Amino acid sequence: MNKEDVGQITVIESTALIISSILLGFLVGYFSTLVTMSIFAIFAEFPVDYSVDWVTLLALVGMGLATVFVGTKMSLQVVNKKKISQILRGD
Hints:
By secondary structure, the protein is mainly alpha-helical.
């Protein structure tokens, strides 16, 4: 396994982590907002009208993925310039 393979694995791991956190965050936020709005609508006797702004959601997902990709690549460039012994010593 060479440095490029380790870099690819790191990018894939970071991307999987951000995608899972985005999905969990969206689901939890969606249901909590839906429950809160439903309770408010019951008290105010209004119909529940909840919609998702998909353009904004996709823009946020895109920015999150781009940040993870760029941040991982930048940190890998620093690490790839060092020897393994320097990394393990903390230099």
